Amino acid sequence: MSNPLTTVPRDATKGTGGLAYILIAQYADYTPTIDASGYATFTPSSSTNWIKVVPRKETSSFSDDAKTDIKNGSVVWNQKVEMVFSRYQQVLRNNIKYMGNSEFIAVAVDQNSQAWLLGYPNGLDMITSTAGSGTAPGDLNGSKISLEGNQSQPAALVAAATLSTITPS
What we know:
2 helices
């Protein structure tokens, strides 16, 4: 049996944590495909139904955690997008209400300009949403939203050329 693993060299450059922005679309509106090199493309390839969410600095993140079940011989990737919004307001309340009844895919663009497709092939659901005023002047007056889903494969990269076709202006 041949070894499919490839060497991962030590990267001398330092990566920056955090998200620059997140693109979110209805799961039913797009059909992602992953090519042999692990890059995602979308059909249709337009920005019509994507929304762009720009979180406050150092507040939002995504994760792509593999969970292996030894007894069943299966692996699942739990993908999660966590977003934090300041100032709870009507438009945010309406979006949260809608998100609670829909499935999504997301493209999380990190501070290193890497774009990652989350929610393929099973979609993401809103798992939690909290909103509140806080108690002290320095507390969050806003909302936190978590989209989450279990997938049969890890997050795929989205090439810059593909990202430019789906990013709303």
